Every structure is written in structure tokens, then in C-alpha cells.
Predict the 3D structure of the following.
Amino acid sequence: MTPDLCTRTYTITDREFELFRDLIFRQTGIHLSDRKKNLVVARLSKRLRALDLENFTEYYRFLTERPDASSELVNLVNRVTTNKTDFFRENHHFDFLRGDVLPEILENASRGGPKKLRIWSAGCSTGEEPYSIAMTVHDFFSNERGWDIKILATDLDTEVLGFAYRGVYPSQRVAPVPGPFLTKYFERTAEGYSVKRQIRDMVIFRRLDLMDAMFPLKSQVDVIFCRNVMIYFNDETKASLVGKFHRHLRNDGYLFIGHSESLMHMKDLFTFVRHTVYRKV
Ligand SMILES: C[S@@+](CC[C@H](N)C(=O)[O-])C[C@H]1O[C@@H](n2cnc3c(N)ncnc32)[C@H](O)[C@@H]1O
């Protein structure tokens, strides 16, 4: 690449921003306010440089008019998603999972219910959330036998899914993992810490767009984690997604959401259990 291409900077007109805002909404459900103009330029300029394009209008045409645009649409989506996450983020959720939800599921099985547990991490980003769930579940069930346990972990962003599937994290990223879990469930490698196979095998990673009308889930799940994903959606998208979660949860199943999110306006579908934890009505 010539130095000129490496350093080329871009600006976006109001009209171009409108076009990209609509396209990003259609592709991801992410709603960008007017304040996000600079963010769009910052995140997408790299793609314009890589494709050697003059401006955002050319990029929009590239994405919408070329028959082979689908792989570039994946790049666009990967650039616009916000992937911030942590191991044991909002730790009270894991305390509640361990202290209330899992004992209840064990109790149901002891009264003849199935020895089956399905948890879905929807918007799993780089994997810290589903692996935190898997470690909590593995530790809780360590003395139990005959259980069929799977954690489904989905995201729209193919780059984060690739990272999550590998399960290798630099040292600073595993700082929130409790010491005994770090020893039990990670291996030290040259790159940092690698999630052990027994935990990785519990998690199935898949690309899934939460905007899709239907989700390809084989059976209803016991618990859904969808945390810090709906904040990027508008009210209509959120309401439709919560309706779909309702259909995919078993009766009395739990929905965990992010710290700044609420389902208070959806009382007909979910009852409030505690801060950011709801239960299917
Ligand atoms: C901020 S991260 C949250 C990660 C994790 N749930 C947590 O709370 O730590 C939001 C994730 O949602 C994903 N996402 C955004 N829109 C999505 C969509 N329409 N379908 C599936 N995932 C989406 C993003 O790619 C990103 O990885």
C-alpha cells in the first residue's frame, strides 16, 4: 500500500451518514444517533482505505450494488459492533445463577425432571460471558452424574466469534476470574491463558443475528443471558427481540439483561425477580 493510501482520511456528509445509519440498522438492528457520526467515520475509514475508495458514497455503492458485496457486509458489521465484555461481568448474575437458578434446576431433576440444562449467551462477544457461565455450571455440577449440559453462545460478529472459539486470553483479560477457577479451568500458554477443553466442550459458538425473524434453536432453553446488547437497539427492535426470547425460554425460565437495561414495560411476558433478572410468565 502506498503511504498516501495508509494516511488517507475521510469525512462523511449528513446524507451519507443517513444512508449508513439505515444500512447498519437493517443489517444489525443497531440504532445510531446523530452523535455517532464520528464513530462511523472512525470505524469504517479503514475499510475505505483497504478498498481504495474515495468517499463514503463509493463505499455505500460497493456495499449495496455489487453482487459480491456479502463478504464486505460482514466486514461492515464486524466494524460497527461494540464488543466490550469481561469475565464474570456483573458478578451478581453469577452469584444468582450459582445460588438460586442451578439449585432449582437440580431440585426439579430430583423430582423427576430431565437432567438437561441449556443456557444461551446471546451476544457473546469474545467469549468471556459463555465461558464464565460454563465454569460456574461445571463447578456447581462437579459431583453430579448423567447431566446433558450445553451453553449456546451466539453473536453477529464473525471476528469475535473466531476469537471466542479459540479461547485464548492475554493475562490482563483473565484478571476478574476467581483464583480457584483460573487454576482449575485455564492453562498457561505463551500467549496468556487458554480455556481448558472440558469448559470449551460445553460451549457451542454460532453466528446468529438477533434481528432474524426465527432462531434455529432445537429446544427451549432454561436461561438466556442477553446483556449489554439491547442498549444498541431501538424500542421496537427490543420489544420484538424480547418476544422471541419469551418463545425460546421454557416456562419459568430466566432472562438476564445488562445493568442499564430494563423490561419493566413488558410485564405481560416477564416478571421481575431482582435487578436485571427476569422470569418468563
Ligand atoms: C457489548 S457486547 C456484550 C457482550 C456480553 N454480552 C457482555 O455483556 O459482556 C455486545 C455484543 O452484541 C453483539 N451484537 C450486536 N448486534 C447484534 C445482533 N443483531 N445479533 C447478534 N449479536 C449482536 C455485538 O457483536 C457484541 O459482540
